[in-house]
Amino acid sequence: MKQNLFSVSSIGIVVDPFGLCTWPIRYSSAERVFIELASIIKTKEDVYQAKDMLEGAANLRPTRLQLLLENCTSIKAKRLFLWLAKGVSPTWNKYIDISKINLGSGKRQIVPKGVLDNQFLITVPKIENEYY
After folding, report:
1. Mean per-residue pLDDT for 29-52?
2. Domain housing 62
3. What is the pLDDT of residue 91?
4. What is 48-98 written as a DSSP string?
5. Maximum Cα–Cα distance across the chain
6. Total domain count for the chain?
7. Structure pTM?
8. Chain-wide mean pLDDT for the chain?
9. Does 106 fall in a domain?
10. Closest listed residue to residue 73, CA positions, set 38, 31, 46
């Protein structure tokens, strides 16, 4: 995984105490995990699995997602995450302001021999779904 996926490395990191000594455990929030996942997708099977997981993520926080997407340095991760979110149509998706997110320029290929999504300019696998 890319080391500097976010311009501010602590965004979306949760720190919880663990054990009797309240040893701090650092882990990514659910919102950050999905963007991190989008950054490492390489195959159409990865895309299908990410789509299935995102369908079950109805309680992601749009304000945290907005902040993460605005501070994400990976154009691929942002475009792919937004494309997946558009396809599963979660309730939090309507609160994301895409105009504030730098989506770069030019086309990106997520998988070979896919179809071009004209909104996000990424080549993705063809998914039989009314939302895509």
Report:
1. 95
2. 26-124
3. 87
4. HHHHHHHHT-TT--HHHHHHHHHHB--HHHHHHHHHHHHHH--GGGGG--G
5. 53
6. 1
7. 0.89
8. 91
9. yes
10. 38
Looking at residue 128, what is its pLDDT?
Answer: 67
- Give which of 131, 125, 103, 130 is closest to 50, Cα–Cα: 125
Hey, how many other C-beta atoms are within 10 angstroms of the C-beta on 70?
16
Please tell me the distance from the alpha carbon of residue 84 to that of residue 104, in angstroms, as a whole number.
Answer: 18
Is residue 8 domain-resident? no
Pairing mode of beta strands 108-109, 115-117: unpaired
Residues 6 or more apart whose Cβ sits within 8 Å of residue 42: 111
- Please tell me the distance from the alpha carbon of residue 70 to that of residue 68, in angstroms, as a whole number: 5
- In tens, the pLDDT along 90-113 reads 889 899 999 999 999 999 999 998
Helix crossing, 44-55 with 75-88: angle to 10°? 50
Q: What is the pairing mode between strands 122-124 and 115-117?
A: antiparallel
> For residue 5, what is the DSSP state?
S
**CA-closest candidate to residue 28, choices 50, 12, 9:** 12
The H or E element that residue 67 is part of is helix 62-71
H/E run at residue 130: none
32 Cβ contact partners less than 8 Å away, ≥ 6 residues apart? 6, 11, 12, 13, 64, 68
Contact 42, 22 (CB under 8 A): no
